[in-house]
Every structure is written in C-alpha cells, then in structure tokens.
Amino acid sequence: MNIIDKNYFVKINQQTFIDYGQILSKVNIVNFYNSLNHLSSEETKKHSDEFKTPPVYSTVITGTGSAVPEHILTNEDLEKILDTSDQWITERTGMKERRIAKPEEAASDFAFCAAQNALADANVKPEEIDLIIVATVTGDMPFPSTACILQHRLGATKAAAMDLSAGCSGFIYALVTAHQFISTGTYKTILVVGVEVLSKITDWTDRSTAVLLADGAGAAVLRATPDPDRGIIATYLAADGSHGKDLYMPAGGSAIPASIESVQKRLHYLKMNGSAIFKVAVRSMSDVVKRLMERARIATEDIALIIPHQANLRIIEAMAKMLNFPMSRIFVNIQKYANTSSASTIIALDEARRSGRIRVNDLVIMVAFGAGLTWGGVLLRF
Ligand code: ACO
Fold first, then answer.
1. N or C: which terminus of the chain carries fewer CB neighbours within 10 A?
2. CA distance 14 to 340
3. To which CATH superfamily is domain 58-225 assigned?
C-alpha cells in the first residue's frame, strides 16, 4: 500500500529537507516510509498530517536600524595628523567625514543600538528572535562571539547566536546564511547585524589606510513569509583566498599571537594593497550584479536601486560604468561614513529605507566585496 502522496515522494528524492532543525536524509525518509506500513490507519493519518512537505518560505526584511559613533572626524582633522589633504581624499575616495568610536566603546555597543532600532522598526520583541548573526572583523574579543554578547544585552533568550567573518562582504554573507535557515523553515525570525570598530585596528600613521576606515553598525530583522514574490529573490557568494594578504591583519590570531615584538612591528593593524583590491572590487561587484540579474531574469531597467559597499566612490562609479547603470539609481553615503566594512551596506540600506528611496515592490540589489577576498550580493523585492 502506497500511503505517501506520489508528488511528495518525488520531492523527497530530489532533495534533503530540514524540518524544524532536524535533517531528514533520504535514508530517514525511506525508513519512515517503511515504518508506516506497520501502523494502523489512525496512526498513519496522524503521522501523515505531521509529516507534510515542509513549506518553502521567502525571507523578507521587516525592519532595519543603524547606529554610528557621535564623534565626527573630518578630512580637515586628518590633515592635522597625517601628510594628506581634503582635496586628495575627496578626489581619490569621495569621503569627506567619518565616525570614530570613543576608547571605551566596543562593537557590541553599536550593534546593540542598531539592533534595538531594527527591532522597533519591525515591531519584533527580543524573545521572538530565533537566531542572531553578527558580521564583523572587529568584534569585542575573539570569544565569546559578539553575537552572544548582543543576545545577552537584548534579552533574546531563545536565540542561537554566532559571528561571521567575511570582511566587508560580511553583511551580505550573513544575510544569505540567514536566508537558508528561513527558506527551509528552520527559523522564522532572524536578526542580522553588521558592525565594525575599524578605528581600533587602524594604523593612524599610515595615510593610505587611515583616511578610509571608520566605525558603525547596521541591523536587519528577517522574517519568513509564504509570499514567493517578496523578499530575497536571488543570491550569490564567492571567494578567492589567493588574495588574502592584499587585505589583512597579520597578528592577534594563532599564526602570530600577541607579543611585544608583534606590537612593536605594528602587526595588529590592518594592512592593504589598495590598487590590487581596487581592481578586484570593480570586476567582482559588476559580476555579482550581472549574475543576480541573470538568475532572476531581469534587466538593469527593472532595478530600482543598487546599494554597493561604500569603499571608494571611484570603485562605485567604475562598477556603474561597467554595468551601464545610472549613478542616480546607486545609493551613496560614503561622504558621511567612509568605509565601515561589514556595516556599510546595511547602514546604507537603513538610510535608503528611512529617506524614502525604497518603495513597496522595488527591486533592490545589495553588493559588496571585502577581505578574504570575498564578494557577493542579494536581490530583494521590498
Ligand atoms: N593622502 C595623500 N596621498 C596619498 C594618500 C593620502 N591619504 N594615500 C596614498 N597617497 C599617495 C600614495 O603614497 C601615492 O603617492 P606616490 O605616487 O608618491 O607613491 C599616490 O597617493 C597614489 O597612490 P595610489 O595607491 O596609487 O592611489 P589610488 O588612486 O590607488 O588610491 C586607494 C588609493 C584610495 C587606497 C585606492 O586604491 C582604493 O580605494 N583601493 C581599494 C581600497 C578598498 O576598497 N579596500 C577594501 C576595504 S578596507 C576593509 O576591508 C576594512
């Protein structure tokens, strides 16, 4: 007697489902199928009802928030401590000012404020959160994770929590990771945060990096919806570890633990090969946008807004040129916040939403590249 719906059996043979956190492999499914043959009709009905095909959910962003330090460091301020000029920084990067944390402020302080703003925007209580993912390379400490520190401060007692490291692509990587848990039905509500306090790993004697880096946080509340036309439509992630040393912090891990020598050699600061990164950034971000459009079968005219990582205005303009995409539909706030790495795209998304740049039904692409090297993007319908 074949008591399992035929379509259902075809589906379970095509893929492995995750149902409420339990992985149901094909072997388990077959065991389950066999065991049903020994059940009474009443028991069979009960199990069949409990064991329906797990629905596939869409992931929607229902709230965003951001938080940046109060202190503003302008290009003119940098002229006083470095051999640089407002003209050079403006022309070569598009940056005019950036936010810098106080000595006593840590990543979790900004993550907490951004998360509170996002939760209020989404009208979600901390107890409703199933998972917290914090994307960062400048967490409070190596462990516990900044996500666990945030979980405790928010009182999100039911949430699992983890950090994710993907450089400036961190928020995109975290968004795509969260999307996997939601689309499989494992979790319904996820808080994704991008936060950096780059000023604490900045070599303030190195003009080629000090003018670029800044601090801040952004957060998004993600929820499951059965509506297939809303939320995350397409995603793409990539990495190329061969470029790792073009952007890295040499010491502080197990390769070079902290020592007097590592401090004297200034190895606890970010090191960067700017021109190498520049080329990969333009190529990779353009490639991501093209792939997302192909996957969703849309044209550039369909995209209401591109929100790129804010690393350099010239990188953004070169990407726009490669894509033949108008700058008027690319969101730029680099002049105010400079490069906040993992926080950059989500701070930009929050600002875009709150300033009315995104309307219901708009197709929006978020795209980034960063240390690793990593790159990736997400296409969403709001
Ligand atoms: N002020 C004045 N002059 C400067 C400065 C400065 N702040 N920085 C560099 N210069 C000088 C250089 O010394 C060089 O002088 P030289 O010709 O006498 O040697 C000259 O300016 C040109 O230097 P370039 O490095 O060729 O300048 P470029 O136009 O490439 O701009 C920059 C440099 C802004 C770093 C660019 O390469 C860039 O944006 N790269 C990508 C950076 C990036 O996106 N990093 C990833 C994010 S960081 C993170 O992940 C946290």
1. N
2. 42
3. Thiolase/Chalcone synthase (3.40.47.10)
Nearest CA to ligand 1 atom 44: 311
Q: Which residue bears the tokens 């043959």?
A: 37
3-state DSSP assignment of residue 128: helix
Every domain range in the chain assigned CATH 3.40.47.10: 58-225, 231-381
* Nearest ligand 1 atom to alpha carbon 196: 51
What is the structure's pLDDT at 229? 86
At residue 287, the pLDDT reads 98
Tokens of 60: 């929607």
Structure-token match 């939403």, residue found: 353
Domain boundaries 231-381, CATH class: alpha beta
CB atoms within 10 A of CB 232: 21
Who's near 332: CB < 8 A, 6+ residues apart? 94, 310, 313, 316
pLDDT by 10-residue block (mean), the chain, 382 residues: 34 34 36 44 51 72 98 98 98 98 98 98 98 98 98 98 98 98 96 98 98 98 92 97 96 97 98 95 98 96 98 98 98 98 98 97 98 97 96
Residue 56 is predicted with a pLDDT of: 81
Q: What is the pLDDT of residue 6?
A: 34
CB 108 within 8 A of CB 55: no
How far is ligand 1, taken at its centre, from the CA of residue 107, in Å? 26
In this structure, the strands spanning 247-248 and 271-272 are antiparallel
Active site residue 148: no
